[in-house]
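Pinned message: reference record for TIGR04255 family protein
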Amino acid sequence: MSDSKRMSNAPVYYVLAQIKFTPVKAMKKYVDDIQDALRLQGYPLFESRDSTQIKFEFNAPGEPAQPAFETVQQWYLSDLNRTSGFVLGNDFITFHTTDYETHQPFIKELMKGMTVVMAYPKPALITRLGLRYLDAVLPDNGETIEQYLCDGLHGVDLDLKPIQSVNEMVFQTSVGPIISKGFIINRLHKIHGQLGFPPDMVPSGVDMLERFRTENVLWHGIIDTDHYVEGNVTPDIDVVEKQFTSLHSVVKGTFNKMISQYAIDKWS
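Predicted structure (tokens):
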């Protein structure tokens, strides 16, 4: 994830950036305008899906919260190759891709979506900005995952057959220009199986690139980096773009510290 150029064998296989804003309960009536604007900017494929979410409601003072189910609608706008697209909800817009190049064009595409949302439903405030990267560590025959990782991520050898492990670290970060305090979650998944996605993430609207599709099960790793800030921000395109650039800079720095020189040489 170089600032200037992409590694020739870059391990990144999925990236998303999300802008959350104050809820627009009437989002559905703006969807046609948003879809038409983004269709003309290269995202003609469109579908909507309903999902059921559980929430807890307090019906009376002193009584425990009761579970309730809520139907939530989301809209998916993708390019013809189904490698990049937007996901729109009542309180967010996400841009995601499986064909990531560098952060500058990626953030520029996200800003296209934000510009359209600000032109139609016009949410009052932005409340959260987040970036998430998934990088695949797929050892060749004769290699190990550990060869690709810094010494601190090699784990403990219990002399048993490994099936799965997750190493999670959470840090506070310094970013800008508007929100100065961020949080980054670095996870290392080690899995025996085919390359897929972490359990909390099931992307829709985009397909994994062919070179990352594993036909056979193998012991592999996923470097999962989630960096975000929260706070009430005026919807200013230039400021939001700079905030995402700052978020990316920290993501790049932590990624480089998690991998070995062997990985850099292999992926460059």
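Pinned by admin. Summary line: The chain has a mean pLDDT of 93.
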